[in-house]
Amino acid sequence: MYKILTKDGRAKRARLETVHGTVETPVFMNVGTAAAIKGAVATSDLEQIGTQIELSNTYHLHVRPGDQVVKKLGGLHRFMSWDKPILTDSGGFQVFSLAGLRKIKEEGVYFNSHVDGRKIFMGPEESMQIQSNLASTIAMAFDECAPAKAERDYIEASVARTTRWLARCKAEMERLNGLPDTINPHQLLFGINQGAVLDDVRIRHAAEIAEMDLDGYAIGGLAVGESHEEMYHILDVTVPHLPEEKPTYLMGVGTPANILEAVERGVDFFDCVYPSRNGRHGHVYTNYGKLNLFNAKYELDTRPIEEGCGCPVCRRYSRAYIRHLLKAKEMLGMRFCVLHNLYFYNTMMSEIREAIENHRFAEYKKEKLERMEGSCEEKGEQI
């Protein structure tokens, strides 16, 4: 199922075989929260730009259109016309992000829908049932993402409850995968390590969930208020206590620099809204930093976003045209920027895999970071 092909230091080059196809890692999962990439990017576009795996959100799809609706339509793959792997997060992050709309109990979490205010209950069993209805390739365990700077007593109680919830998730997933009407009886389950920025809690929790022999392990509760240095430190102390022979997923992270630092520490799955969110605001990634295409300097610039880029946007359209679309509030401008950014991320992951295979990841990381540091405008570079 998951096989490490080679290592370069702690960086892993691996392969995950799933019922929906193969994932070559390290990999970036393109985020389609409500079964769509924000910015009018279709699954046919994802295929064109080298996307291996897509991520959708359990809570949002439960609220709208409803997981029962998706099940009746044949599952998420058929619903969104995507035949490659899909990972669904558990709804646990919404326990953190919708703090003003929820109440946490031992049995689960009581929400008020952010859409219409209706009452929703989600516990470990409900999260697994929703994800089974969605029929994703990988389901995430239901957890609580405690604030990074919460009090120790709160964090320890939260992590202990997350461990109890994980045991319930595993039992329910096994039951669901054995039902005759389950669309994907081979659905995988990843557990989530929590513990904020407390080394001892992180390490203890990693050891506890490692004993459950899950299909993969995620590190959650980072990029939620702590510094980059704190995040890297937590990875340094936590990753060695997770099973190396299983996929390691850093949730919701991050920038190209974050990804390079985490790969060096043994992480091989990533997701983040940055490429699509930044793209929708006209901010595009290049190998020499970010560009803000709203800037007046690009009004007459006939070059592509980045010379030599193979994305469908750079092969055909100019900075000047894209800037015009953005200024005119044409959706096409946002779409172009998001497409380029996702291609940039997917291509960077391909380069990372090649660098690990050639045992030159450290050199690649150094070169990439030196080139990308800051934005092109800040550096005054004419690229």
Automatic annotation (TrEMBL):
Pfam families: TGT (PF01702). Keywords: Glycosyltransferase, Metal-binding, Queuosine biosynthesis, Transferase, tRNA processing, Zinc. It comes from the Bacteria. Gene3D superfamilies: Queuine tRNA-ribosyltransferase-like (3.20.20.105). GO terms for biological process: tRNA queuosine(34) biosynthetic process. Belongs to the queuine tRNA-ribosyltransferase family. Homodimer. Within each dimer, one monomer is responsible for RNA recognition and catalysis, while the other monomer binds to the replacement base PreQ1. This is Queuine tRNA-ribosyltransferase.
